[in-house]
Specification:
By secondary structure, the protein is α+β, with helices and mostly antiparallel strands.
Length: 132
C-alpha cells in the first residue's frame, strides 16, 4: 500500500517527520501497542536514553514485520518520553538510530512528554499505526 506524504508549504519544511500521511483504501491497518525497551524477558535492556529509543523502535518494527509488513508501511508514530530535554539533547544520535531502522521514511509523528511509563525504568515508549 503506497503512502503519500502531505507537507503543505504553509507549515514549513518538516525535519524528521511528515505533517500528514495519506493512504489508499483497501489496505489493512495495524495498530501497534506502545513498545518500551523490553527484551524477550520483558526487562529493560539499558538505562541509556538513546539505547532505549533504539530498542523501543526495534520492538515496534518486530510487530510490523510479524504482521507481514515493512518499516516503510508505518504511517504514524507516537513517541512518549519521560524527559523531553533528554530527547532534545540526543537528537543526532536518535536520528542515526532511527535512520538505521527506517531509512529516510518519515511518517506522521508526535513527541509527548509524560510523567512515567509502564516500567519505572522506561524512558521511551513508541506506538505506531501501519498500513499493510
Amino acid at each position: 500500500m503506497p503512502l503519500t506524504f502531505i507537507n503543505p508549504e504553509s507549515l514549513g519544511a518538516p525535519r524528521g517527520y511528515s505533517n500528514g500521511v495519506l493512504s489508499e483504501t483497501g489496505g489493512r491497518l495495524l495498530f501497534v501497542a506502545g513498545q518500551i525497551a523490553w527484551n524477550e524477558s520483558q526487562r529493560i535492556t539499558s538505562a541509556e536514553f538513546v539505547a532505549q529509543f533504539d530498542q523501543a523502535l526495534t520492538n515496534v518494527i518486530a510487530v510490523v514485520t510479524a504482521a507481514g509488513g515493512q518499516p516503510d508501511q508505518i504511517a504514524r508514530l507516537v513517541i512518549y518520553v519521560t524527559d523531553k530535554s533528554e530527547y532534545l539533547a540526543h537528537t543526532r544520535e536518535i536520528g542515526e538510530r532511527y535512520r538505521a531502522h527506517m531509512g529516510r521514511h518519515y511518517p506522521a509523528m508526535v513527541l509527548v512528554e509524560v510523567k512515567s511509563l509502564l516500567d519505572d525504568q522506561a524512558q521511551v515508549e513508541i506506538e505506531a499505526i501501519a498500513l499493510l
